[in-house]
Write a structure and sequence with these properties.
By secondary structure, the chain is of the alpha/beta class. It is built from 12 helices and 6 strands. The two termini are 43 Å apart. 23% of the residues are buried.
Length: 292
């Protein structure tokens, strides 16, 4: 199945879960439970609607604290009504998340179990705790099994389905190919690196994609740095294109333009851009490697 259809199905599942939580909130008797269920539904709805509006891969952010914290709070205020939700922690530990977050999820699960078992006889409470530990271990085993898959996603070539936003690895391949083509054919090509504030990176990405030629792509190097390859007939037209592109962005950016005829090194040019004070630095073929 194509990834764009999987993304739509995933978004539909999030919105459906939000509607289900909203329905549960309308049935809750306690105001605290209604508020927690409403917050959970609002969070799921927002996540589903804004799923494709972020450049961040979810595994790199501790967003799993949100459902874990809401579930622990719900079990604490209404253990008699929502005690069966205790088993949801087996699903939460299967989600892609930083390793340091797993002990915290285990602590929240233990806190929820402690509150639920207070309404049970000791034997039932002990059995519930053992079963919870068992299913969480099964979920953790599944998460470890899927971890290489999640890590591989961060190295994928196209970062967002249906867009012209590509990864660093793809930029390295395209740089090599375009450098060879420049040697064989008579045209001008340059690598343009752009650095902006993290909150401006996604709107800048959409703006740049709309202003590039249909056969040109954009690459994301990190949370602040974007890159593109500008192809022109000669150096003069390339300079005009670059100046027109950099004159229009509504957000402040720093830029570094490197002629592909140089022996530049991408990591060194990135570090040079990070410490650059001028809005724009242009490096001809003989200077790019020296200024990196």
């Amino acid at each position: 199945m194509d990834s764009k259809y999987k993304a739509r199905l995933f978004r539909a599942g999030l919105v459906g879960g939000a509607l289900l939580l909203g329905w549960q909130a309308s049935l809750a008797e306690e105001a605290s439970a209604r508020a927690l269920l409403g917050l959970a539904g609002l969070w799921l709805l927002t996540t589903g609607l804004l799923q494709e509006q972020s450049l961040r891969w979810p595994a790199l952010l501790p967003w799993q604290l949100v459902p874990g914290g809401l579930l622990a709070a719900l079990l604490w205020v209404e253990p008699s009504h929502y005690g069966a939700w205790l088993w949801l922690w087996a699903i939460l530990v299967m989600l892609p998340q930083p390793t340091w977050l797993l002990p915290l999820q285990g602590g929240l699960a233990a806190l929820g179990w402690w509150r639920v078992q207070q309404d049970l006889i000791p034997e039932q409470g002990l059995l519930t705790g053992l079963l919870l530990a068992a299913v969480m271990l099964l979920g953790l085993g599944r998460a470890l099994y899927l971890r290489p898959l999640w890590q591989g996603v961060s190295r994928r070539r196209r970062l967002l389905p249906g867009t012209r936003l590509w990864s660093r690895d793809q930029l390295v391949r395209d740089l090599y190919r375009e450098r060879l083509r420049c040697e064989r054919k008579d045209y001008h090509a340059e690598l343009l690196l752009l650095r902006a504030r993290p909150r401006h990176c996604w709107p800048l990405t959409r703006w740049l994609v709309s202003h590039l030629e249909p056969d040109e792509n954009l690459y994301r190097l990190d949370r602040r740095t974007l890159a593109t390859l500008l192809i022109s007939r000669d150096a003069a037209s390339g300079r005009q294109r670059r100046d027109a592109l950099l004159a229009a962005p509504p957000w402040p950016v720093k830029a570094r333009a490197i002629d592909l005829g140089s022996r530049h090194t991408l990591p060194l040019e990135e570090r040079a851009l990070a410490g650059q004070t001028q809005p724009l630095v242009t490096l001809p073929p003989s200077e790019a490697a020296d200024h990196a």
